[in-house]
Amino acid sequence: MRAAFTKTLFNTAKHNKNIMLLTGDLGYSIFEPFIQTIPKQYLNTGISEQNMTGMAAGLAAEGKIPIIYSIIPFITMRNFEQIRNDICYQNLNVKIVGVGSGFSYGPYGHSHHGLEDIGILRTLANLIILSPSDPEEAEEATKWALQYNGPVYIRLGKAGEPVLHNKPFHFTLEKGSILKRGNDVSIFSTGAITSSAIDAAKELDKKGISTGVISMPSIKPIDEKLIIQQAKTLKALFTLEEHSIIGGLGSAVAEVLAENQSNIIFKRIGVPDRFTKKMGRQEFMREANGLSVPQIVEMIMQSIQKKK
After folding, report:
1. Which ranges of the chain would DSSP assign to H, the alpha helix?
2. Rounded mean pLDDT of 264-283?
3. CATH class label, 2-156
4. Worst-scoring range by mean pLDDT, 131-135, 197-201, 304-308?
5. What is the DSSP letter of 159?
6. What pLDDT is recorded for position 307?
7. Is CATH 3.60.21.10 the right assignment for the domain spanning 177-307?
8. HSE (CB half, 13 Å, CA atoms) of 31?
9. How far apart are CA 170 and CA 16, in angstroms?
10. Quick one: residue 63, left, alpha or beta (phi over 0 = left, psi -120 to 50 = alpha)?
11. pLDDT tens per residue, range 85-126
């Protein structure tokens, strides 16, 4: 996803001198072509995310299209006040890009885990939140964001995520994308863990539970029509995300279901509300938090059987 974003940004910026990339002293290896080709459109602000956000607001006020880029906790939490007051309150045309969703930086410890960003940023008015699930969604979401006039947050994995779409993907704001159709249940998923949702759905199919998978690249606004439609036609809905169980995709879907008086079986699957004491690579951290494919399958099976 990160490579898809970088390539799309570079190709667009070459033809639009108003696009400015601001980074917090990282990303040199992936941004080298950008820096070497259009150096006047790049600023390394150092490890000072609050200042970087203020600089971006100033650039946007003068007609530039600034992109601020860093690891998710540093680009969303260290400078939350500046995002709120300088960017969103002023409704300025700044793009906030966070890399390393979920446990992408697993071995670095909790300071680098991207688990709270959606929940925090969903509270901010004027802010669009995009969370692509694969490189194609990342590319299309980036193209859309650079054309949109207003604040946008793009949440990215780190690298190496597989392509999940078997046909060309076109991003539309507020629309989910059906990756696999099912007749019994559906898993709404967002981010890099969506590949696990597809694997879990295939295992559930083998157990006689026809399972669909829907990628949700647009978190705010969210596809309420699709959620309601699925709730009316299926037996159960589940959400899957590599994010805190509180405040993310699961909370957003639950709000839609509650406000539309839906009584469908529903369960949120995400990172438990705790600080994980174990540290390791992404797959290890997922399993330590109940997010491996077998664990996902087991949770869904238990929810369905409990209702019966």
Report:
1. 2-13, 28-37, 49-61, 72-76, 80-82, 117-121, 135-147, 194-206, 224-233, 249-259, 282-288, 293-307
2. 95
3. alpha beta
4. 304-308
5. S
6. 66
7. no
8. 22
9. 22
10. left
11. 999 999 999 999 999 999 999 999 999 999 999 999 999 999
93, two tokens: 């045309």
Average pLDDT over residues 35-50: 96
Contact 303, 273 (CB under 8 A): no
**Which tokens sit at 223?**
């596809």
pTM, two decimals, is: 0.97
Tell me, what amino acid is at 134? D
Confidence (pLDDT) at 26: 86
Q: Confidence class of residue 160 from pLDDT cuts 50, 70 and 90?
A: confident
Each domain of the chain, given as residue ranges in start order, spans 2-156, 177-307
Residue type for 185, please?
V
Rounded mean pLDDT, 16-37: 93
- Residue 306 has which token pair? 């409990």
d(CA 105, CA 2): 13
Task: Tell me how far apart the alpha carbons of residues 18 and 11 are, in angstroms, rounded to a whole number.
Answer: 13
Q: Are 224 and 259 in contact (CB under 8 A)?
A: no
Look up residue 93 and give its amino acid: N
Task: Name residue, tokens 């950008």.
Answer: 34
Tokens 């839609």 belong to 256
Q: Which two tokens stand for residue 183?
A: 């007749």
pLDDT at 308 over 60: no
**pLDDT tens-digit map of 71-82:** 999 999 999 999
List phi, psi (to 5°) of 182.
Answer: -140, 155
